[in-house]
UniProtKB/TrEMBL annotation:
The keyword Transmembrane applies. It comes from the Bacteria. It comes from Mediterraneibacter hominis. Keywords: Membrane, Transmembrane, Transmembrane helix. InterPro entries: DUF5692. Pfam families: DUF5692. This is Uncharacterized protein. The chain crosses the membrane at residues 12-31, 38-59, 79-98, 110-128, 160-179, 219-238, 297-315.
Length: 348
């Protein structure tokens, strides 16, 4: 089993997952359907939260109890969470600029922005995966096991799976094709990337889930499973071609929620930890005595295999079609691509 879901708390854990999954889908619809929704979610709300975050750290620096005991300060102080929040939010803003043709969003050269921001987000996670692999090796040399305590007081179990998944992440960047094939939908609700079909989405979801399972094992039930499935679900049923926009929107909004209300995942009846913790608990004050990295290894191999296969398919198609897969779209014969292009506005 991937997660420890059993006993009297299982019902609450499942309810929490459903609430997060449904909430993310609803929040994405609010953000994507109108300019007002997008402006509130990705300009006004992040600006207000930035003031809040600065106030917390200024207060903590001055020794204020309210700041030192604030859950955001005690549970979410890693560089990764802030980097992810602002990188995802920057992506959402850039996507709105392309969708509504604001300012440089009208320029042809700006169409490469989605590739760049997604690649940056992937690299942030890859660095974090490699860091965990290194820390795990250091812990093995010093303590005889691979457990290391993160800056957020979470015990992580670093090993070869981190390196394998980090390589999968790098390959995933190379699996993004048709960088310039960015369109606005005719109804102006979506920025479309039609060449980002189910092939890439599956490879990305496997890689990113393994990332969260390795490095955010106390959050992966939500930020891994629910957060990844919400945009994939929307893309599959009603928003063809809009997966990357769905992904950015839900990621940014989830990061904002998690940064302000970390106890939802960390210390509530909804808390769910991975099967890596064979002790059944994650207590920062007590070094775990054992671990089960089986699923870490299996998913890492699946993620690497999926990305190798997709990249091989891309290379094969590029040769057959005599195309540069990054300058030109190569999945034009797939149903996903055709349905996405049917939604796109006519190009002038």
């Amino acid at each position: 089993m991937l997660f420890q879901i059993y006993g009297d708390n299982a019902g609450w854990q499942l309810l929490g997952w459903l609430l997060v999954f449904a909430g993310l889908i609803l929040a994405n619809e609010i953000a994507r359907r109108t300019k007002a929704g997008g402006i509130f979610c990705f300009l006004i709300l992040p600006a207000a939260l930035t003031v809040y975050f600065i106030a917390i750290y200024v207060g903590a620096a001055s020794g204020a109890e309210w700041a030192l005991n604030n859950p955001t300060y005690t549970h979410m102080n890693s560089w990764f969470h802030y980097a992810k929040l602002y990188a995802a939010t920057a992506g959402c803003i850039g996507f709105m600029m392309l969708k509504y043709k604001w300012s440089i969003g009208k320029k042809e050269w700006f169409k490469i922005f989605p590739f760049l921001i997604v690649a940056i987000n992937i690299l942030i996670a890859v660095v974090s995966d490699f860091e965990s692999g290194i820390r795990g090796a250091m812990a093995l040399a010093e303590h005889g096991d691979r457990w290391w305590l993160s800056s957020e007081n979470v015990w992580l179990y670093g090993g070869w799976w981190n390196w394998v998944n980090g390589i999968a992440g790098i390959l995933n960047i190379l699996c993004m094709t048709g960088w310039w094939g960015i369109y606005s939908s005719r109804d102006k609700k979506d920025m479309l990337w039609p060449d980002m079909t189910f092939c890439f989405i599956i490879a990305y979801d496997l890689w990113n889930f393994e990332y969260t399972y390795n490095n955010l094992p106390t959050h992966a039930w939500y930020c891994g499973l629910a957060l990844l499935l919400a945009p994939t679900f929307a893309n599959a049923l009603w928003n063809k071609g809009g997966w990357i926009q769905n992904r950015a929107n839900t990621l940014a909004l989830w990061c904002m929620f998690a940064q302000v209300f970390p106890l939802f995942q960390d210390e509530s009846r909804f808390t769910t930890i991975s099967s890596v913790y064979t002790d059944g608990v994650m207590n920062a004050a007590v070094r775990p005595t054992s671990a089960d990295p089986t699923m870490q290894g299996i998913i890492a191999i699946l993620a690497l295999a999926a990305n190798v296969i997709v990249l091989a398919v891309i290379i094969k198609r590029a040769k057959e079609q005599k195309k540069n897969p990054y300058k030109q779209e190569i999945f034009t014969d797939q149903r996903d691509f055709k349905l996405a292009m049917a939604r796109a506005e006519e190009q002038k």
